[in-house]
Amino acid sequence: MSVRHREWPVALALTPALILILAPFVWLVVSSFKTEAEIGQADPFTWPADLMWRNYLDAWQIGGFGELVGNSLINLIGVVALSLITCAPAGYALAKIRFPGREWLFYAFILGLTVPVQAIVIPLYQVLFGLNLVNTLAGIVLVQVSNGIPFGIFLMRSFFIGVPDDLIEAAKIDGASHLQILTKVFLPISTPAVQALVIISALSTWNDFFLPLIVLISPEVQTLPLGLVRFASTYASDYRLVFSGTVISFLPIILLYILMQRRFTEGLTQGAIKG
Amino acid sequence: MVIPETPGSKVVAPLRDAPAVAGHTGGLSVRMSKRRTTGAATSDSSAGDARTALWLMAPALGLYAVFTLLPIAATFWLSFNSSAGFNTSASFVGFDNYAKAAHDPIVWKSLVHTFLWLAYHVVMAGGLGLLLALAVSRLRITQVFFRTAFFLPHLVSLAVVGVIWANIYDPFFGLLNTALTRIGLGAFTQGWLSDPALVLFSVNIASSWQGFGLYMLLFIAGLQNIDRSLYDAAEVDGANAFQKLIYVTLPGLREVTTFVVSLAMINGLKGFATVFVMTNGGPFYQSELITTYIYRLAFQSQDHGLAAVLCILLSLLAITITIVFNRWRARLSQ
Amino acid sequence: MLKFLARSTALAAMIAASSLAHAETLKMWGPEQITEPLVAQLWNGIKADFEKANLGVTVEFMPPTGTISNGAVQAAIQSDAGPDVILTNSGIGRISVVKNAKQVMPLTEQYEKRGWKDQIYPWLYTELKGQFGGEIYEVPDGLDALGIWYHKDIFEQAGWKIPATWTEFEALLKSIGETGLQPIAIGPRTTGSAGHLFGNLLQSASGKEVIGKALRREIAWDDPSVAAGAVRLQKLVEAGDIKKEMAGLDLDGASRLWFNKRAAMFVAGPWFTANARKAGYDLANAGYAPMPSDIKGAAIPTGGVGWSWLVPVNSRQPELAMKWIDFMLSDAVMKKRAQDPASTMIYPREILGVEPPTPVLKDIFAAAAGGVGYNPSVYLPGPVLDTYFQVIQGLISGQIGGEDGMKQIQAKMAEAK
């Protein structure tokens, strides 16, 4: 009873905060429907005379958003898949197999966790150049996965450490190899960790800007954030296109989030805590 | 579900309960899972174990060595050389680059700005996250709505956030100044991105607007973890809401707060996209961070030796922050 | 019947295969304003003509993602997607950056072999020869002429006109400010644009000779005779004739002010016609005049080489690139471009008998015919450019004074020896 009493005043008190925080979104969407002249009047409180859906059509076509979304999707799937393939076995090995040098290897991975990617960008670029991977989606996937390996290993290892050793002993008696133990015993019960890894690496890859800025030069391979920034600077005088283009760039993920809100939240908190 | 602790990292229960591990054993028979063995693995499997471990780690190790470890070493080497660009050869110059960096006023400026940036980020993004978490966690019916709504900015790429806020801050056409003028507060309009005293702060607001969502979620999880009985005990002692906050809530959040602060600092160090898109370090280097200066040196002026020195500086900062916070967290959990 | 069909199909296949075997692509970086429909039309026409004259060749335009100043050209040359020939903002400062990074080929031989040296203004050829000790790395495509763009209707209504002397100009700025209009719009975040205004102020205060000497390092940049222009900018900002808030704007943000008639004047060159067209501004209303000066003969536009052709060292089609440059330098193409409404600049040689289609371009060409001064952005050595542009930003945001700013520029000039 007393809980419900407290709810509405709090909700009311939060409303101004809600308005302020969501204001940029609202302004952006409303402005994206205005004509260039209406935007030029720069009055944030007027509504567009007509809903200019045309702005969205134009932005999509001129901005080549279809291609950008496609590239981002390929980027995302590549990173998530490769991250799982690399981090799950490695996390298992570090958590459950005793071998010489285990602690040192673990510290080596922690080093990657602390050093920001901006600090290694010059040689990184040269490595990619040497491997002929500059300006390719393959190149950026490899770099982003490598960047995420420390966190991914940390996450999987933390989770696997929490799994009782009994399961391993039991499986060994049954004659299972470590690989089989990993795939048949551990992975099926690792949904929270896998979910966390998938969501965190998916979100950070989709939104990544710095690495694509360095690696992806031509428009054909660029991803969404990079494409939008380039689009905004090229068409900076066409504000109706910049606004509608911006909305196009974040709308899919926001819709996805609202639909899968619970999984996102679980995944992110689990992941941040473990990592 | 409580997860056993690993050294150096205390774990807080997740936002939603995960099913207990013991109930899922895949295809193994129930009889097997009930058996316990004592002691470590048998000795003759340890050599085979090491080999298996290596194979399991090979993909991760391989990628990591080529794309992270190698560049880290190379950056170190590069800082002792002078190079004019990717196609030119490097010549060994010893500590010259370090001396150049020490005498470069922009290096010092960017260092100061980076510290300011970290401070702004922790206070604004962390602070906002805490405040909203305290409020939102009290809600029942509307909690999911508010939590979802407040999290939306976090889903937008920092670069896109930069584009949005650069438009909001436009002194003549942007949302902020035109809204202020319309509601009669025209006197408060500023050159948000042109005023040297305001620019770093303004850009950070955009970055914090994007960042606070995650911290809010972490604080909410932390709040859920505080023992209810402590509140009841305080109630019995006659504590009011404010006292409960100070004596029960905040202490209970100490763990999570440390974690959020360290996370915010590490994220702050990586700050690049918003500054790059909104001001490119300007005007006149007033919003230059270490990361943006690295980019400028490496890709515009093509002075790779000096850029490498800054990279080392950035890495040292990151490592120091991580070590300091790990020690602090270890001390807290005692 | 069947045999006939089979033979003709085989023949067709052979022809297709052979033309495929000869199919070559020339990737061209540029042109800058290809997103503007009129410009696109002109260049697609040029592309078609070249392809017709060189069967089996396809020309592909790579829309620029930036310039040499922001590293985009260097990044493109670095990458595997590298262009084969580049059209971009040039000038000795920018060219030296890519030359020092060994990213572009020397073209000196081609000037001799292919006769390019006779296809540009003689003074231009001499100037280029003198830049890198005889080696030339660019072929000029367009020259710039920077001056003040103003709205004819607003000026007529208020009875204003761009005066001949600086003192009168200061008075004009005051009168404009009183009506609530921004006297001058400037977007210093776009480095080139910052340089346009600043170069004009420098020349107006010191005259063409002095600026030329400063660029040749015969006078120091912090010498009062040279720093005068910087001090003028400082005073304009202090007086509120140029709002400090503009320090955060880029070219598009500032030109938006001008196109929406919230600013009276904007310093730009002939290329601004393309921007105007995109913004829907009526070009018949655009007026142009050089920046006034108290010094006799200094009220002329500033300029220099605006855009040039470069050939990357890793160009996959160096022969085709040279052919393309031949083509661009030919009379036919130059005339075609000069007569096109999308024409945006001054050509690197005299083109007789061609009237520019847009009235404001006529004004610009007329002003430039009397002589063009130096736009320092185009003449300063590479390492100095970044500081030069940052100082301008500092001046507009009120962070630095004119003399201090020029001291910093001079320090970099001395270093760059």
Describe it for me?
The complex is a heterotrimer of chains A (275), B (334) and C (417). Chain A is mainly alpha-helical and 275 residues long. In chain A, 78% of the residues lie in helices and 0% in strands. Chain A has 14 helices and no strands. The two termini of chain A are 39 Å apart. The mean pLDDT of chain A is 85. Chain B is mainly alpha-helical. Chain B has a domain at 100-332: MetI-like fold (Orthogonal Bundle), CATH 1.10.3720. Helices cover 65% and strands 1% of the residues of chain B. Chain B has 14 helices and 2 strands; from the N terminus they run H-H-E-E-H-H-H-H-H-H-H-H-H-H-H-H. Chain B has helices at 30-34, 45-78, 96-103, 105-136, 143-151, 158-168, 175-182, 199-224, 228-236, 241-252, 254-269, 273-278, 290-300, 304-332, and strands at 81-82, 91-92. In chain B, helix 3 packs across helix 14. The longest helix of chain B is centred in the first third of the chain and has 34 residues, at 45-78. The radius of gyration of chain B is 25 Å and the shape is globular. The two termini of chain B are 22 Å apart. The model of chain B is unreliable at 1-44 (pLDDT under 50). Chain C folds into 2 domains: 23-143 and 305-359, Periplasmic binding protein-like II (D-Maltodextrin-Binding Protein, domain 2, 3-Layer(aba) Sandwich); 144-303 and 374-415, D-Maltodextrin-Binding Protein, domain 2, CATH 3.40.190.10. Helix content of chain C is 51%, strand content 13%. Chain C is built from 18 helices and 9 strands. Chain C has helices at 2-22, 37-53, 72-78, 92-100, 108-113, 122-129, 152-158, 166-178, 191-215, 224-239, 251-259, 272-279, 318-329, 331-339, 359-369, 376-379, 382-396, 402-415; strands spanning 24-29, 57-62, 85-89, 139-151, 182-185, 263-268, 286-289, 302-310, 373-374. In chain C, strands 1, 2, 3, 4, 5, 6, 7, 8 and 9 form a 9-stranded mixed β-sheet that branches. In chain C, strand 1 (24-29), helix 2 (37-53) and strand 2 (57-62) form a beta-alpha-beta unit. Chains in contact: A-B, A-C, B-C. At the A-B interface, helix 1, helix 4, helix 5, helix 6 and helix 7 of A face helix 2, helix 4, helix 5, helix 6 and helix 7 of B. Chain A: Its main location: membrane. Chain A: It is a multi-pass membrane protein. Chain A: Residues 69-260 form the ABC transmembrane type-1 domain. Chain A: The chain crosses the membrane at residues 12-30, 73-92, 104-125, 137-160, 181-203, 241-260. Chain A: This is Carbohydrate ABC transporter permease.
